[in-house]
Design goal:
The complex is a heterodimer of chains A (about 110) and B (about 120). Chain A is mainly beta and about 110 residues long. Chain A contains no helices and 11 strands. With about 120 residues, chain B is an all-beta fold. In chain B, the strands form 2 sheets. In chain B, strands 2, 4, 5, 6, 9, 10 and 11 form a 7-stranded mixed beta sheet that branches. In chain B, strands 1-3-8-7 form a 4-stranded antiparallel beta sheet, with no helix packed on it. The chains are: A mainly beta (about 110), B mainly beta (about 120).
C-alpha cells in the first residue's frame, strides 16, 4: 500500500523538544521529506534526508532515519510558538513514477 | 515576488457548475503539480506535468481536466462540480521530476466550497 502514517496530534510546552514520528512504506525510497504547513498556507519544505543517511541536523531540526523499521522522525529543539503547524512526512517510492506520497500530517501545538 | 501563485484563493459555487483554478510559477521550473487536501488535511497528488507533458494522472474523475498552456502555467478545470469536490487545491512546482532532492514549492492554495 501507499500509507505513510503519522500520529495526528502533539502538544508541547514552549522551550521543550518536539519529536514527530512517521512510518513510511517503501524501504527503497531514496529521499524522505518533512514539510510544514502553517494555517491557511501551502506546504513548505523543512528538510529532507537521503536514504543512505541515518541522521541529518539543520539548526534546531534533527531528522533520524531507521531504514530497517521504515521509521522517520523529526526533532525540533527549543520549540517555539511559531512552530505550531501541521507537519507532513513524505516519500517517493521507487515504483511511484515520481509521485510524492504524503503522510496524514501531525498537528503540533506549542503551549506558552 | 510570489513564486507559485493561484487564483482564486477562495471559490464558492453551486453543484453542477464548471469552474477553473489558475496556477502560475515564476521560478523557471519544468514540472508542475496539482494536489487536493481534504477536510482531514490528507494531501494527495492529482496531476503532474513536466515540460507541458502529462506525467502523473492519478485516479481522478474525468470531470477534472488540467491544462498547461506553457511551462509556467498549469490550470485546473472542473466540470459538473459535486459536493465531494470541496477541498483545498494546491498547485506546486519543482525544478525537475522529484525523484531526487528537487524541492517542491507550493502555492497558497484555493479553498473550493461546493454548495
Amino acid at each position: 500500500g501507499e500509507d505513510v502514517e503519522q500520529s495526528l496530534f502533539l502538544s508541547v510546552r514552549e522551550g521543550d523538544s518536539s519529536v514527530i514520528n512517521c512510518t513510511y512504506t517503501d524501504s527503497s525510497s531514496t529521499y524522505l521529506y518533512w514539510y510544514k504547513q502553517e494555517p491557511g498556507a501551502g506546504l513548505q519544505l523543512l528538510t529532507y534526508i537521503f536514504s543512505n543517511m541515518d541522521m541529518k541536523q539543520d539548526q534546531r531540526l534533527t531528522v533520524l532515519l531507521n531504514k530497517k523499521d521504515k521509521h522517520l522522525s523529526l526533532r525540533i529543539a527549543d520549540t517555539q510558538t511559531g512552530d505550531s503547524a501541521i507537519y507532513f512526512c513524505a516519500e517517493i517510492p521507487v515504483d511511484s513514477s515520481y509521485k510524492l506520497i504524503f503522510g496524514s500530517g501531525t498537528r503540533l501545538l506549542v503551549r506558552p | 515576488d510570489t513564486a507559485v501563485s493561484q487564483t482564486p484563493k477562495y471559490l464558492v459555487t453551486q453543484m453542477g457548475n464548471d469552474k477553473s483554478i489558475k496556477c502560475e510559477q515564476n521560478l523557471g521550473h519544468d514540472t508542475m503539480y496539482w494536489y487536493k487536501q481534504d477536510s482531514k488535511k490528507f494531501l494527495k497528488i492529482m496531476f503532474s506535468y513536466n515540460n507541458k507533458e502529462l506525467i502523473i494522472n492519478e485516479t481522478v474523475p474525468n470531470r477534472f481536466s488540467p491544462k498547461s498552456p506553457d511551462k509556467a502555467h498549469l490550470n485546473l478545470h472542473i466540470n459538473s462540480l459535486e459536493l465531494g469536490d470541496s477541498a483545498v487545491y494546491f498547485c506546486a512546482s519543482s525544478q525537475g521530476l522529484i525523484a531526487s532532492s528537487y524541492e517542491q514549492y507550493f502555492g497558497p492554495g484555493t479553498r473550493l466550497t461546493v454548495t
